Every structure is written in C-alpha cells, then in structure tokens.
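Project outcomes to date are best conveyed with an example. Our students and postdoctoral researchers have been running inverse folding experiments weekly, and each run begins with a structure described purely in tokens. The record below, which covers 93 residues, was selected by the lab manager from last quarter's runs and is presented without edits.
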C-alpha cells in the first residue's frame, strides 16, 4: 500500500469475494499510510464487526491520526469494548 499503489491495492481488494480480516485491515492501513484517512474511515465502517481486531483498531487510529481526524479517532477509541495496551498506546501517541 505504498504511494502510487493504493489504486492497485483497491482493485485487488475489490476482487476478493469474501475478504478476511487481513485483507480489510491491509486496505485500511494502505489508505492510512497514504494520508487517505476519510477513505480508511469509510472502509472501516463497511467492515463486518466480527472481523475487527486489535490490529484493525491500531490501523484505523493511525489512519485518523495521520489525517488529522482527531474526533473520529476519539469516537472509534471510545467504541472499543476491550482496550488493550496496543490500542491505548496508539491513541496516546
């Protein structure tokens, strides 16, 4: 998901008939690494809740952080039922 390959990653993601948590999280992270926090947020909200894990939360919180989406990050953080050291550390930094 480096710069210039987000479109390629998106095309590949869209071809997956039933993406697993790895595919969803990788695509969210790809958006985040490229400053596309709004796109990361949209995808996160489309992701089936049962597939969301600590890594997904870390990636979406980082995506929000890199894009200046502080209120969105706070809202997501507050929605996490079981906060781990990783998610707390991500939110603090």
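After processing, the design step wrote out the following sequence:
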């Amino acid at each position: 998901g480096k710069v210039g390959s987000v479109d390629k990653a998106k095309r590949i993601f869209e071809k997956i008939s039933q993406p697993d948590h790895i595919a969803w999280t990788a695509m969210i992270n790809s958006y985040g690494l490229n400053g596309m926090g709004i796109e990361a947020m949209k995808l996160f909200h489309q992701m089936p809740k049962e597939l969301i894990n600590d890594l997904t939360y870390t990636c979406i919180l980082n995506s929000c952080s890199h894009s200046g989406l502080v209120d969105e990050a706070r809202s997501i953080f507050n929605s996490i039922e079981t906060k781990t050291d990783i998610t707390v550390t991500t939110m603090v930094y």
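Helices lie at 6-15, 21-33, 37-46, 54-66, 70-79, 85-92. The mean pLDDT is 90. The training component of this project remains on track.
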